[in-house]
Structures are given as C-alpha cells and as structure tokens.
Write a structure and sequence with these properties.
The protein has 165 residues and is mainly α. α1 (2-11) packs across α4. The relative contact order is 0.14. The chain has helices spanning 2-11, 24-46, 49-73, 80-108, 111-136, 140-164. The N and C termini lie far apart (40 Å).
C-alpha cells in the first residue's frame, strides 16, 4: 500500500518517476492488472475473446518493448522498472475511470460520454508525455512527440499486427 501512495501523485503530474521505488512485485501486479482490464475492454469492443487476447498480448509486448528501447537508447535502462511501472500504474488508474464511461457510452451513446472518454484519453496522453519528459529529461514538445509515437506504436501497432494474425 505504501508503494501505491508513492505512485499515485504521478497520475496528477506531481512527482518525478525517477524518484519512485523500484519494486518488481508492484510492476508485476500492474502488468497483470493492465492486461486483464485491457483484455476486458478489448473483448467488449470486438466480441471475439481470442482476437482480444492476441491484440492485448501484442499491445503489452509493444509497450514493454517501446519503453525498453527508449530507456536503452537514452542509456537509462537501469530505471526501466520504475518507468514501466509508472506508465502502467497511471494507465491502470485511468482505465478504472474509463470502464464506467465505456459502459455508459455503449449503453446510451450519449454525446457527453464521448467527451468524457476523450478527456480521459487526453489525461492518459498527458501522463505518458509527463513521465517521458521527466524520465529522459527532454523538453515538452519532444515529450509530446514521443508520447504520440508511443501511442501510435503500441495501440495502432497492436491493432495492425492483430489484423495480420
């Protein structure tokens, strides 16, 4: 619970991901939670559990690979666990907020639900850009570009590879 309290301010863009504790157990918990929640959302959208499993597996692999490659190129591979945990944890917090919005959107297709979903996705983007800015020490425009590339590589990459399978 102590680690959770240390990672939570990062979701509000208030702490430095490099100062967070390195915990393999917390990393694994976040990875598993991320996989499960992404799988449930993907299975709801595609109505094919096998396809959803493959797409979420590819997305998870691409996320881990992208962050690892980024840390390797920046010569900061020693903070891989902290940065990956930070991105996964914040994505999990935001995903918990996205789930009821997705249900609301699916049931009612209300215009407001689309706006709320857009704001939550923008929040996720801002958190990833912030983590990248603080972890590899770059300026804001570079972190926005890198976060854009991260989302394109992981989500669209997983979708494209999932379609090939």
């Amino acid at each position: 619970m102590d680690v959770l309290k240390q990672y939570l301010p990062l979701c509000w863009l208030q702490s430095n991901p490099l100062d967070l504790p390195r915990s393999i157990a917390f990393f694994r918990q976040n990875l598993l939670f991320s996989f499960v929640i992404e799988y449930l959302m993907q299975a709801n959208m595609t109505d094919d559990p096998v396809e959803a499993f493959f797409e979420v597996s590819i997305e998870t692999f691409l996320t881990l690979l992208f962050i690892g490659l980024l840390m390797f190129l920046n010569k900061t591979l020693y903070v891989y666990i902290q940065i990956t945990t930070a991105i996964l944890f914040c994505a999990n917090v935001i995903s918990v907020a996205i789930v009821p919005v997705m249900v609301w959107l699916t049931v009612t297709e209300d215009l407001l639900s689309y706006y709320v979903l857009g704001l939550l996705l923008l929040w996720d983007f801002a958190v990833v850009a912030y983590i990248m800015k603080r972890s590899i020490i770059i300026n804001t425009p570079a972190s926005i570009a890198l976060a854009s590339f991260y989302f394109i590589a992981t989500y669209l990459g997983a979708f494209a590879l999932g379609q090939l399978i």
